[in-house]
Each structure stands twice: as structure tokens, then as C-alpha cells.
Automatic annotation (TrEMBL):
Species of origin: Gracilibacillus oryzae
Name used for this protein in its record: DUF1273 domain-containing protein
Pfam short name (any one): YpsA
InterPro entries: YspA
SUPFAM superfamilies with a match to the protein in the record: MCP/YpsA-like
Domain of life: Bacteria
Length: 187
């Protein structure tokens, strides 16, 4: 696998209303561990659309990892002015990540015109990547369900791979972090 896309839920779907929510650090740690294992197996590119939540957090992780690993980040918003309706702090976060990305370009060179842009974005991601990493719950995928359906079809008919970071995986990260804190206290 050389090219991976990462997606998952938006903050509101995770009941996260602040960037200071400690759950974000656990999500990022889970993403970091998974990405490092993929890099060690030959991953070269991670491409995302820059969606709020999981994708932006994943992009931040990739930007940090780029300091130590030779992985590249591509960001492909589905259309121009993608973040125009987002809260200002999220717009600023996307702008910062776009500056740090190795490549970025909107898939449509026009503002939002219709839902087909999102559907075509999913198709494009599946054509351009070897696999996807989805952070979420397969039984309750939320807004990821449309991409997931297409990814499952691609996995059945092609050599496409779907990887997961599940709520269970996140619970394990929380336990590991708690154990590390206890070890620090003991010393």
C-alpha cells in the first residue's frame, strides 16, 4: 500500500464541541500508531479532503510525523470555498494544514453546486488510493456511511483494503495512556 485515505466522523457526531476535548488526543494517538505501522510497511502518501473532525486531526498527525518519516500529505477539498460555512477556528485550522501539505487542490474548480460533488469525491478517493483508514463504528458510521458503502464495493471487486480504528481501539489507547500515567506517578 502506497496511498491511503483517512476519514471518519465529524466533531458533532462524536459529541466533541471543543478542540480542547481530551478525547481528541486519544484519537490522534490511535491515528499516529496506525500511520506509523503503515509507513513502516511502505506507505508514501496520505490523502484527505480536509473534512472537519477526524480528517483534520489526522492531517495534524501526518504533519507532525513528516518531521521524522518520509510520508507526504495531499489535501483535496471537494470544491472551492469548502470551509466557508465552518466556524472560524476550523477554517483557520484547514488553512494552516493546507500550508503544511505537500500538495492541495480542489477537485472541482467552483464552489458547492450539489451533492454530486461529495459523491464524486468519494469515487475519486477510491480510485486514487490503495486503502482507507476509517475511524469510527461500522455499525453506526454516521456521515461516513456513503464513503463506506463505496469502499466495501471496491474491496469486494478490487484489491482495495479497509482498515479501522474502532471505539474499542480508542478505549485501548485510553487504558494504555492511564497505565503510562500510573507508571510515571510510581517513579
Amino acid at each position: 500500500m502506497k496511498i491511503l485515505t483517512i476519514t471518519g466522523n465529524k466533531p458533532n457526531e462524536l459529541n466533541i464541541s471543543s478542540e480542547k476535548d481530551k478525547r481528541i488526543s486519544y484519537i490522534k494517538e490511535a491515528i499516529r500508531k496506525k500511520i506509523i505501522s503503515f509507513i513502516e510497511d511502505g506507505l508514501e502518501w496520505i490523502i484527505i479532503t480536509g473534512q472537519l473532525g477526524i480528517e483534520l486531526w489526522a492531517a495534524e498527525v501526518v504533519c507532525e510525523l513528516k518531521e521524522k518519516y518520509s510520508v507526504k500529505l495531499g489535501i483535496f477539498p471537494p470544491f472551492l470555498e469548502y470551509s466557508s460555512r465552518w466556524p472560524e477556528h476550523y477554517q483557520e485550522k484547514l488553512e494552516q494544514i493546507l500550508l503544511e501539505a505537500d500538495f492541495s487542490q480542489s477537485l472541482y474548480n467552483q464552489p458547492y453546486k450539489g451533492p454530486y460533488q461529495f459523491s464524486n469525491k468519494d469515487n475519486w478517493l477510491l480510485q486514487k488510493t490503495d486503502a482507507c483508514l476509517i475511524i469510527g463504528d461500522e455499525e453506526y458510521p454516521g456521515s461516513v456511511k456513503f464513503f463506506l458503502e463505496k469502499a466495501k464495493n471496491a474491496a469486494e471487486s478490487d484489491h482495495y483494503q479497509i482498515f479501522w480504528i474502532t471505539p474499542f481501539d480508542l478505549e485501548e489507547i485510553v487504558k494504555e495512556e492511564a497505565e503510562l500515567k500510573l507508571l510515571d506517578i510510581d517513579h
